[in-house]
Amino acid sequence: MIRLIHGLAEDKELTNRILRNVGWIFSSQVIVSLCSLIAVAVTARVLGADGIAIVALVEAYMRLTSLIIHLEPWQAVMRFGSAALERGDLQRFRTLIKFSTIVDLTLGVTAALIAFACAKPAASLLNLEEHVGLLQIASLALAVSFRPTGIAVLRLFDRFDKLARLDAIVAALRLGVTIVVATLGGGPAEFVAIVVFFSVVDGSVAYILGRRVMAQRIEARAGDGPLQALSENPGLLRMFFNSNAAVILRQATQRLDVMLLATLVSPTAVGFYHIAKRSALAGLRLGRPLAQALYPELARIAETRDNQKLSRLIFGASGAFLMVLVAVVTPVLIWLEPLLAFIFSEEFRGAADVVAIQILASTVLLAGIAVVPAMLSLDRDVPLVLLRLTVTVLFFLAFWPMTRMFGAEGAAATHLLCNLVWLLSSALILRSALARRTVSEA
Fold first, then answer.
1. Contacting residues for 116 by C-beta, under 8 A, at least 6 apart
2. Exposed, middle or buried, 320 (CB in 10 Å: 0-12/13-18/19+)?
3. How would you class 129 by CB atoms within 10 Å of its CB: exposed for 0-12, middle for 13-18, buried for 19 or more?
4. Would you say 44 and 344 are in contact if contact means Cβ atoms under 8 Å apart?
5. CA 126, CA 64: separation in Å to the nearest integer?
6. Which residue blocks in 218-266 are alpha helix, DSSP H?
7. CB 77 within 8 A of CB 152
8. Half-sphere exposure (Cβ direction) of 354: Cα atoms closer than 13 Å
9. What is the pTM assigned to this prediction?
10. DSSP code for 441
11. Which of 300, 269, 356 is closest to 11 using CA atoms?
12. Quick one: DSSP state of residue 89?
């Protein structure tokens, strides 16, 4: 591992570019995580565990519907867009972006309509009969979701700085609005309105920035018909569906768990679990910069067929990040209970166990942060989906008995177990893929 990390440091140009982009994303995610955590704390103090459970369930319904129906094209666009830019095929690139935009528009509107139509039965299932209107309003926000295409364009043109500034500004504004609403004594409806409004902002501004950067970098011409992208990029449709299938399978455990938990435990336990997930999410946000900065670099290196450099980047970056994780997580776990009382109020001291388990689960997931971009860069999207499917099935098989026996702590422990299986299995798949690739080119 030390040798891999040392080898990574020797490639100064690559390392500097990755560190610069990681720096931009990390700094923005620190702001986003802090703002999000403070916003949750403010909301929890105003609404209590039962009230925040309502907001959590509405947001989970909104995100889950978007996840299943609005398949995001950005991972496939980055994989094939990087190849088009490397070869100087700008017309092919323009067509690819047009295809991505049409996908975002069509699937966003479809998700909004389906979510709105299903709001009443969903409210009954989630014990939110008095809040059907909140589910319906949240559903309509899904129609405006062009962020995936915007993300792809900004990252392909190495403008991580613009995306970082945008995310930080939006998070700060959201926190400010949350504090104002809390000061005015807002209830669950007002806090759901905050979620809806900033979802629309998040879904549109990144796309506008991406199009501006694209217009500055390449000559503004109309691309070919969007379907032309399928013939110009063999494997685009397969990667589009497989990369989204992998995300859906992963996020299903992150979104459905709150809904399922609501049918098994008390609203207070759901509130504790929501706090645990949001606390762990703050850590995940701090780790995502590495994956986001690595993906375009891995895609470029994979295109050059430099397998040694590819392996060094994947495992060296993962090893270095794991060392950082251990140093950060250990003191947090030691002082967890007083931290929860200080941040969220004394009522949430009882959430210490479930929060600790969620933090450990997130740490395991973060240790393999380079796995997904590496697999996509190596065109290993099929094994990625199969592994996700296996882990997701394992999660839902274990979730009910673990929750029945141990409550919200059991639900969190199910995440920890499945993340361990994911990490070990994905490392084996990656090593095997790199070995086969090296042998085939020898």
1. 136, 139, 140
2. middle
3. exposed
4. yes
5. 14
6. 228-232, 236-262
7. yes
8. 24
9. 0.65
10. T
11. 300
12. -
pLDDT given at position 68: 82
Torsion-angle region of 224 (φ positive above 0: left; ψ -120 to 50: alpha; else: beta): beta
Q: Could you report the per-residue pLDDT of 371-386, keeping only the tens digit for each? A: 778 887 787 888 888 8
- C-alpha to C-alpha distances, 164 to 213, 244, 366, nearest whole angstrom: 14, 24, 20
List the structure tokens of 373: 């971009």
Q: What is the pLDDT of residues 34-51, one digit of tens each?
A: 888 889 889 888 888 778
The closest alpha carbon to 221, from 91, 409, 337, 314, belongs to 91
With H, G, I as helix, E, B as strand and everything else as coil, classify residue 224: coil
What CA–CA distance (Å, rounded) separates 122 from 273?
20
DSSP structural state of residue 218 = S
What is d(CA 126, CA 259) in angstroms, rounded to the nearest whole number?
A: 7
The one-letter code for the residue type at 125 is L
Burial-class residue 161 by CB neighbours within 10 Å (0-12, 13-18, 19+). Answer: middle
Residues 3, 326: Cα–Cα separation, whole Å:
20
- The total number of residues shown for the chain amounts to 442
Q: What is the dihedral of CA 85, 86, 87, 90, to 10 degrees?
A: 10
Q: Is residue 252 within 8 Å of 67, Cβ to Cβ?
A: yes
Q: How confident is the model at residue 5 (pLDDT cuts 50, 70, 90)?
A: very low
Q: How far is CA 289 from CA 1, 23, 148, 323, in A?
A: 21, 8, 16, 16
What are the C-alpha distances in Å from 83 to residues 11, 45, 77, 108?
21, 50, 10, 27
* CA–CA distance, 319 with 290 (Å, rounded to integer): 12
Residue whose C-alpha is closest to residue 190's, from 202, 178, 198, 173: 178
DSSP state of 370: T
Residue among 70, 78, 110 at smallest CA distance from 96: 78
Please answer whether residues 78 and 295 qualify as being in contact, where contact means their C-beta atoms are separated by less than 8 angstroms: yes
Residue 237 tokens read as 């449709």
Nearest alpha-carbon partner for 289 in 424, 207, 168 = 168
State which amino acid sits at residue 158. D
List CB contacts of 339: < 8 A, sequence separation 6 or more: 332
